[in-house]
Amino acid sequence: MLAHVTTFTIDGLSSRRITVEVDLRRGLPAFTIVGRGDAAVRESRERVQTALVNAGFDFPQRRITVNLAPAHLRKVGPGFDLATACGVLVASGQLPPAALEHWAVFAELSLGGELRHCRGVLSVAEGARAAGIAGLIVPRECAREAALVEGLEVAGVTRLQEVAAILRGMPRPELPPPAAGPPPDADDPDLGDVRGHTGPIRAVTIAAAGAHNILLSGPPGTGKTMLARRAISILPPLTRDEAIAVTRIHSIAGRHVSDELVRQRPFRAPHHSISPAGLVGGGSLPQPGEATLAHHGILFLDELSEFSRSALEALRQPLEDGAVAIVRGQHTVTFPTRFQLVASTNPCPCGMAGDDRCRCSEADVARHRRKLSGPLLDRMDMLVNMPRPKAEDLERSVGTRSQEVRGAVLAARERQAHRLAGTGLRTNAELTPRLVRELVRADGSAIALLRNSYAQGQLSARGHGRILRVARTIADLDGCARVREHHVREALGLREEQVLEGAVAA
Ligand SMILES: Nc1ncnc2c1ncn2[C@@H]1O[C@H](COP(=O)(O)OP(=O)(O)OP(=O)(O)O)[C@@H](O)[C@H]1O
Ligand SMILES: [Mg+2]
User: What pTM does this model have?
Assistant: First the structure.
């Protein structure tokens, strides 16, 4: 007898519908799975057989053939276990054939017959709804994640016996209550911890308001890492659509441990030994990299000069396009990468450049600067110097708290969203040259100032647009509809070329 079960496989960030066909016939007992499965799929035979027996079902002593269709798609992961088990139960008459018309299933099985958590449940649920399937059976701990998709019946189940009961027509169990989230943490890093540094804090605020890329440069121990880690605390909360996108990514990467929507903007700080594939994604079955895990959040590259050149160069496309395409044979997977880049570096190997104590030779300094990838630096909207704070600043009590700054950032973001309505963009950093021309209105004196800087050779054509974008953000923080001269002046000052002297022309 033949049974058909609907399940899904993960492909990039979305899911593809898979039909598991199970055929039972007389002959020497055998259990074969065909249809381009990976190792986890091949091993699924042992899990399914043992799980069925341990859950009290009969494992038919027949010739069993399982086909995963369509055959041309590669099938990954252990998520086919439950579909295969259900197919065997229907094909051997232990479940009614009509049982699987209503439901798709997606879970790994334990040897005892329990359903185990699988990566990518949110994408599977979205796929099921798009395919017009009425209901989805998933492990109980993933049920709330699947239920984020509206218009889909979700059954969160612990054991194989309960799956059988639902397929025989028993009502599905209620969704589990939300797991207690982590308590709101009073110890979260707050901008108020940073003493002094009024200029850099202002720069980080502007960067957050417009989602601009920023590089902080300064001697060791001045608080570059400290300030960068606090940049996340002044970003506005995720919108629901953004939260769904982030949850989808983190679920597929296996980093989403709770059963709820991700509420925090991602902050990813990969170590400088990371490979290009680790940074932008890769592998024979493409997995998202740090750039995608930082989507809608911050990618923080601490000690930028220590990253390998190949890793930094790999970031160019994702920075430019907001997405990275990974090609494997005939197949291309695209991962989104709209992150804000925050980076830090020392100005020279000893970190004391510009100070009498600097022991580096000119050649050392030049080599250090060459290590910072020029094309990457050219995509930095802001280059900011962080000198040692003054002694009296360090002694001062708490500075401005994140919460106060976040209010201003939020207001500026709302102005941008209003201006960009209908373009599909959200922040000034994303403005294309055409949109800069169309949407950024500036005073005559502001334009004159910009023209002067350009004429003096201080700006490249790309730099020209960049200054306008940053100036637009400063005006948004100011609540100004037009960009004024002092906004442009401040934006020009936020690209302190001496930070890199000659490493890149603005
Ligand atoms: N401006 C500051 N206000 C308060 N504490 C500071 C400040 N600067 C540095 N510190 C203290 O010094 C520690 C080290 O700072 P941090 O790691 O941010 O320095 P850094 O600039 O990243 O140095 P490096 O170049 O060596 O990486 C911080 O954890 C903090 O305790
Ligand atoms: Mg540091």
Answer: 0.90
